[in-house]
Amino acid sequence: MAKQPRILAGESAAITGGARGIGRATAEAFLRQGMRVAIGDVDFDAAQKTAAELGARAVALALDVTDRDSYAAFLDGAEQQLGPLDVLVNNAGIMQVGRFIDEDDLTARRMVDINIHGVILGMKLALARMIPRDRGHIVNISSQAGKFGAPGGATYSATKHAVVGLTEAIRGELRLMGAHIDVSYVMPFVVNTELGSGLGEARGMSNLEPADVAAAIVEALQMGIVDVWVPKSAKRTNVLGAVLPRSLSEGMARAMKADRVLAGADLNTRRAYELRAARSEPGLEPTAEPAQIPPAASEPQPLASPIEAEVAQTSSEYTAGVTSSE
């Protein structure tokens, strides 16, 4: 007998990095399912704007995922306004592209703090609420870089591998405890968000829209899917690569130019995004370390948003250790 989809209407969800990109699209998808949504973001103004645009069942809350007190206050606020937490989506994440040997330590630390330590904090705090109620579902956003490893994004790949391993291990612990809490990890290909701007293209693969990932998250909640590939066809590629000899699987990746997606990124296109993201972790201020992005082009370039304009105006204060952020 086919498994019946879980009814999501009336449930409450909290989404980190929810002001834009995949986070916002997921909030929209949840609202269409009849859920209530708390949008957490380090950019509180953007979170407020998004919540106002999405309607009365969405609320905005400030959140720094690297700070335990901030994360706890986010979940407290979500439950006070929306009721007991049913779903947590750990979406907040950043990506700095470039050769590993050129990466400064501050950039690496910020990615580890946000991409994996933030997920660890969120899971601990959410499980402390869900386990006594014996229900809930946590969704962690990883990446296909968390399965394959992507040249040009070594530390990013490492953090996303960690998200996969963390989720699998916690799933096993919950089963041993007899706890009825579901966990999932989502592995999308390149998504048309700020984080995905300026990246290279792989043959036979098209960039995703945030709504594609959001739809996969909804399906994971409804059907209890653990490992969520977006698109689904990527799972077949992963299985094929696992059974082929390494020389053949790596040759296939080179033929598809999959090894150039991050390594071939246009850093000038990504410049404004990475400057804005230098403020992704409020407690970790940039210091005098080598810059990770090229100098601005000689001709002035249009800025995509007021946030980027603000960062560009103050970029002289942040000439080193800049990162990217969703």
Q: What keywords describe this structure?
A:
326 residues, alpha/beta, Rossmann fold, seven-stranded parallel sheet, 11 helices, 7 strands
Description of the molecule:
The protein has 326 residues and is of the alpha/beta class. 46% of the residues lie in helices and 11% in strands. It is built from eleven helices and seven strands. The protein has a seven-stranded parallel beta sheet, sandwiched between helices. Helix 1 crosses helix 7 and helix 3 runs parallel beside helix 4. The protein is globular, with a radius of gyration of 19 Å. The chain starts with 11 loop residues before the first strand and ends in a 13-residue tail after the last helix.
Could you tell me the number of beta strands? 7
Distance between the termini: 40 Å
CATH architecture: 3-Layer(aba) Sandwich
Provide the CATH top-level class: Alpha Beta
- The oligomerization state is single chain
Give helix % range: 40-55%
What is the arithmetic mean of pLDDT? 85
Question: Which stretches of 5+ consecutive residues score pLDDT under 50?
Answer: 287-291, 297-325
Shape: globular
The amount of beta strand, in percent, is 5-15%
